[in-house]
Write a structure and sequence with these properties.
By secondary structure, the protein is mainly beta. The strands form 13 sheets. A seven-stranded antiparallel β-sheet has the order 23-24-25-26-27-28-29, with no helix packed on it. A six-stranded antiparallel β-sheet has the order 1-2-3-4-6-5. A hairpin with a 5-residue loop joins strand 11 and strand 12. Among the domains are: 83 residues, 2-Layer Sandwich (Phosphorylase Kinase, domain 1); 198 residues, Transferase(Phosphotransferase) domain 1 (Transferase(Phosphotransferase), domain 1); 234 residues, Neuraminidase.
């Protein structure tokens, strides 16, 4: 029926018609009591005349009226006037989402703004136990200021049976009840369980919302067929065209949100609509005005048939399909194919295949910037930074949740979780500072199909966090871990008595070592086809000096998989056997500022030059080579700091050493003995004191004595004076002191108490120590200045700041700051040394340069 202007329905006076739909006619009306306009919906005659349906309507309307939320249209009143049943609600001026979609896909900014608000409204309703049942673009209003309002909450039970065909959006297929076996909803937006007449819950609204999201992104419907039965069949058995091809500019996280909402199995959708709303809100916040054109946008992907990117353990049919693909895929013939997927200059952290098998997520510090998490595709050369905190990627769950490592400078780092959609990270476990980004890629891993993490903390393996499966022991500690694909075992690498090993532990704590005797074990990954554990490692005594890719079976059978001129670090292995690996180049650069100059000189000799000692006049440098060019033993070298002469190899070894004041002798320490090596002609001499473990050795100015730091059984470290010609070492500092430095005239020693962290000056010939004031725990004492009345203090990692501390007054004076001109790939400076006058210096730094590859054909 049509109501004329002036008609009264209870306290409301009809002003004019607004429109009509499956739920009845809608009118603009005036509430004179409150002086406001409302929208009046007059229910269809078949509802108003059916007492049972009218009672249900009144019950649903009362429930809907309790939904006080800015994104849900408020129900004010219900009633019946002269046989006409009506509902009064908030009047919203704007356009329906259907009208907005008439022009095609929405711009990303507008899409996310609308979607986030719809999700917030749904989350509120679902939290109170109310399900919409008929969510579609016609039931979403958008005001002029961009506010979104959801219409007709709780009223879907009142619509009439569906026609057999016709315009799909306006094809409600509803019966009067909600029990299993009854179909409710609108064709094209119904969930599979709705289509099959099964009992429904809030996750059916999520499916409808996913269909709307798809349409907003692609500009077309997810399940559009010629007739209603065909559409219903598509909802039950077919997947929509992937957004990667239907809307290539869709951000990857948004694709995954849509795919999760459109999962056929409701168990694979969101366990809480609040989580869905949170993911969209984070994605919306993460995309700033300036990043909308490219942030998290994946390039077009070639169609590869049906896919479902959101994989969970319960999806056994999908798992079987994947395994079937793996089983029928023909192995690549010929040598392995290395396809680079990263192209910037810098260092990589962790990397993983995403659940869809085509997207790759990785962390990297490019061009000297802090580490970020990036995404790329197998068919792309572009990588996009995700709106996530600066962190290292550790693991990604089957549901798209990331485990990341957040670094806090010198404070303990934290393992945290964060949604792929973005937002703030939630810190879960504090761990000891792991060092540079590249050394902390496998300290946490998600259990397959679960929302629980296995972690490495305090040198032990824990799963779940707090339950120790592999404890730390004396001289042992766990370094990294990786869950097996079936979730029954965890592989781990362990430092054990100077060697590294690889083992597995089951969830009850039963352990087994698979292979041992390695100098370095860099990473672990399970091969889903062979069941082997693949790991990147270097054997002790390997003359090549590089990390290679190995495999070991659960019975301990070991084999070499691949060699590479550079390090090859396995990161992940896909179901079809493709390997995600990175190639690392770790050269160490050595720079000096010779006396009387203003420009640094690059003194790098081979591939890994590390400064050890600088002569007092700043003209000669003692250094070692410890990379591949140094061979299995490394080498000890000396050269002029102005670069005018070639380096001279003095001996094997990459141990620390010191140069005598007359530049004629070098002392090198090996733990249980010292080696005195002539720079020119002469014989090498070995010094060994019973039960001494040497930690440091420095020359006295006379070239006849050594200042050594050492420990003995049952005693802590202390400094000793040792004659090169013989005789027992004489202690000169108390037990428990370390970091000893010698004054230029050889009369005083500065050292720190390892417990109190307090420094003091100790006379070499005996006497009371003199406390040194105000040296912080994070400050390094580089040595005495040329006057003997000041100490050089160094702070910082990438930028090292030197100050002079006056021992008499405690006053500090800035000396200089040292930093590499190009910081790309550099995490910290090593072995920075000033000349006593502070005018010259030398330092070293490692530069990590990485490239990420997908490798096909490795077997």
């Amino acid at each position: 029926m049509t109501l004329a202007a002036g008609t009264r329905l209870g306290p409301y006076e009809i002003v004019s018609p607004i429109g009509a739909g499956g739920m009845g006619e809608v009118y603009r009306a005036r509430d004179e009591r409150l002086g406001r306009d409302v929208a009046i919906k007059v229910l269809p005659a078949e509802v108003a005349s059916d007492d049972e349906r009218l009672k249900r309507f009144e019950k649903e309307a009362r429930s809907a009226s309790a939904l006080n939320h800015p994104n849900i249209v408020t129900v004010y009143d219900i009633g019946t006037s002269d046989g006409t049943s009506w509902i009064a609600m908030e009047r919203v001026e704007g356009e329906t989402l259907r009208k907005l979609l008439s022009g095609g896909a929405l711009p990303l900014k507008k899409l996310l703004a609308c979607a986030a608000q719809v999700a917030e409204g749904l989350a509120k309703a679902h939290a109170t136990g109310i399900v919409h049942r008929d969510l579609k673009p016609e039931n979403v209003m958008v005001t002029k200021d961009g506010t979104v309002k959801i219409l007709d909450f709780g009223l879907a039970k009142l619509t009439s049976p569906s026609p057999e065909s016709g315009e799909l959006t306006h094809s409600p297929t509803v019966s009067a009840a909600t029990e299993a076996g009854v179909v409710l909803g609108t064709i094209g937006y119904m969930s599979p369980e709705q289509t099959l007449g099964e009992a429904i819950d809030f996750r059916s609204d999520q499916f409808a919302f996913g269909a709307i999201l798809y349409e907003m992104a692609a500009g077309k419907r997810a399940f559009a067929r010629a007739t209603s039965p065909e559409t219903m069949a598509a909802i039950i058995r077919d997947e929509p065209e992937p957004l990667a091809t239907a809307a290539p500019d869709t951000p990857i996280p948004l694709r995954w949100i849509v795919e999760r909402c459109l999962a056929k199995d409701r168990e694979e959708r969101y366990a809480s609509t609040k989580d869905l709303a949170r993911d969209l809100a984070r994605l919306r916040e993460g995309l700033t005005e300036g990043s909308l054109s490219g942030a998290m946008i994946a390039p077009p992907a070639a169609p590869r048939g049906r896919q479902r990117a959101w994989v969970v353990a319960a999806a056994t049919l999908l798992a079987g399909a994947i395994l079937g693909v793996v089983a029928t895929r023909r192995p690549r013939e010929g040598p392995p194919l290395y396809r680079p997927v990263s192209f910037h200059r810098g260092s990589l952290g962790g990397a993983r295949f995403a659940p869809d098998g085509k997207t790759i997520l990785y962390s990297a510090a490019w061009e000297g910037k802090p580490p970020q998490i990036f995404s790329t595709r197998l068919d792309s050369t572009e990588s996009t930074a995700l709106p996530l905190p600066s962190a290292n990627l550790l693991s990604i769950s089957s549901a798209g949740k990331l485990a990341i490592l957040v670094l806090h400078g010198d404070d303990p780092a934290a393992i945290a979780e964060v949604s792929l959609a973005g937002g703030a990270a939630r810190e879960l476990v504090a761990i000891d500072p792991p060092g540079p980004l590249q050394f902390a890629r496998q300290v946490a891993d998600w259990a397959p199909g679960e929302d629980r993490l296995a972690v490495v903390r305090n040198g032990q393996l824990e799963f779940p966090a707090g339950k120790v499966l592999v404890p730390a022991g004396k001289g042992t500690r766990v370094l990294g871990l990786r869950f097996s694909p079936d979730g029954r075992q965890i592989a781990y690498s362990e430092f054990l008595g100077g060697d590294q090993s690889v083992g597995v532990v089951d969830l009850s704590g039963k352990r087994k070592t698979l292979t041992a005797g390695w100098e370095i074990v860099s990473s672990l990954a399970w091969h889903p086809g062979s069941g082997e554990l693949w790991f990147s490692a270097r054997r002790k005594g390997n003359s090549i000096g590089v990390v290679e890719l190995h495999a070991v079976s659960m019975s301990g059978s070991e084999r070499l998989v691949a060699q590479n001129p550079q390090l090859i670090i396995v990161e992940d292995i896909a179901q079809d056997g493709r390997v995600l690996a990175r190639s690392d180049d770790w050269p160490e650069t050595m720079m000096c500022l010779p006396p009387g100059t203003s420009r640094e000189v690059n003194l790098t000799w081979l591939d890994f030059s590390q400064s050890l000692a600088l002569s007092a006049d700043g003209q000669d440098l003692l250094f070692m080579e410890g990379g591949a060019a140094g061979g299995a033993t490394g080498g000890l070298y000396m050269r002029r700091t102005d670069g005018s002469t070639a380096a001279v190899r003095l001996a094997d070894g990459w141990n620390a050493a010191d140069l005598s004041a007359d530049k004629k002798w070098v002392v090198q320490f090996w733990g249980d003995h010292l080696t005195v090596i002539p720079v020119g002609p002469g014989e090498t001499k070995t010094i060994q004191d019973k039960d001494f473990q040497y930690r440091k050795a420095l020359w006295f100015p006379d070239g006849k004595r050594l200042l050594i730091s050492a420990t003995t059984p049952g005693h802590g470290p202390r400094a000793y004076v040792r004659d090169v010609s013989g005789g027992p070492p004489r202690p000169v500092t108390p037990e428990g002191t370390a970091g000893a430095q010698l004054s230029l005239d050889g009369t005083r020693i500065v050292a720190v108490d390892v417990k109190s962290h307090k420094w003091a000056i100790y006379p070499v010939e005996g006497g009371e120590p003199r406390p040194v004031p105000s040296i912080g725990e994070n400050e390094a004492v580089d040595g005495f200045d040329d006057t003997g009345e000041g100490l050089y203090l160094a702070t910082g990692d990438l930028k090292m700041r030197f100050e002079r501390l006056d021992l008499a007054t405690g006053k500090r004076t800035f000396v200089r700051e040292i930093t590499p001109a190009d910081p790309t790939g550099v995490t910290e400076l090593a072995d920075a040394r000033l000349t006593p006058d502070g005018r010259g210096y030398c330092y070293s730094f490692m530069r990590a340069l990485s490239r990420l590859y997908v490798v096909e054909g490795l077997r």
